[in-house]
Amino acid sequence: MSEKVQNALVWVKDIFDSQKVQYQIVGGLAATIHGGSREVADIDLYIRKADANKILPQVKSYISKPLTHYVEGSWDLEYFQLIYKGQKIEIGLSPGTRIRATGKGNWVELKTDFSQSVVGTYQGVEVPTIPVAELISYKRVLGREVDLIDIEELAGRLTSKNT
After folding, report:
1. 22, 32, 124, 147: least surrounded by Cβ within 10 Å?
2. Which residues are within 8 A (CB) of 116 and not within 5 positions of it... i.e. 6 or more apart?
3. Residues 6+ apart with CB under 8 A from 61
């Protein structure tokens, strides 16, 4: 567990809460929240496209990648990146994200349903988090090495939650 991640999470959560912006934690941090063991590299999350202008003035001095449309590796999305006290935070806009399926190369729409978020906790910080089944589903599509690690660790938790 990382104090740097925790501090950045508290900071960004306070901004979202003050601006009444819904968000959803995804990626490696969500995997950790759901019981995965990998070290968290960055904080990945989504907000509604319509809320971006509420956030940008609050975070402008921390922007390391400006808000625009990017096609990078397995991702096709609009997002911006922040660096807060050395911690990378990537904020994607929903709807409109697509991910490339491993091996096949076809693009799959990644839908963020904020109403289905579950309360997750990282070092005492409660945040709306992608449900574990949805997380596993999109990580299966991506199929990168880190995704396969997360799937292996989380699949057992999903099974035990359903029993």
Report:
1. 124
2. 131, 134
3. none
Name every residue whose Cβ is closer than 8 Å to that of residue 84 and which is 6 or more positions away in sequence.
Answer: 7, 8, 11, 12, 62
Q: Are 58 and 29 in contact (CB under 8 A)?
A: no
Q: Which residues pair with 16 in a beta bridge?
A: none
Task: Convert 28-64 into a string of H (helix), E (strand) and C (coil).
Answer: HHHHHHCCCCCCCCEEEEEEEHHHHHHHHHHHHHHEE
pLDDT in tens, 50-102: 999 999 999 999 999 999 999 998 999 999 999 999 999 999 999 999 999 98
User: Would residue 161 count as lying in a domain?
Assistant: no
The count of domains in the chain is: 1
Residue 160 inside a domain? The answer is no
**Euclidean distance between the first and the last CA atom of the chain, given in angstroms as a whole number:** 29
| Residue 143 and residue 154 in contact, taking contact as beta carbons nearer than 8 Å | no
SS3 94: strand
Domain that residue 100 falls in: 3-154
Q: What is the DSSP letter of 95?
A: S
d(CA 90, CA 44): 5
- The DSSP bridge pattern shows strands 42-48 and 87-94 to be parallel
162 within domain boundaries = no
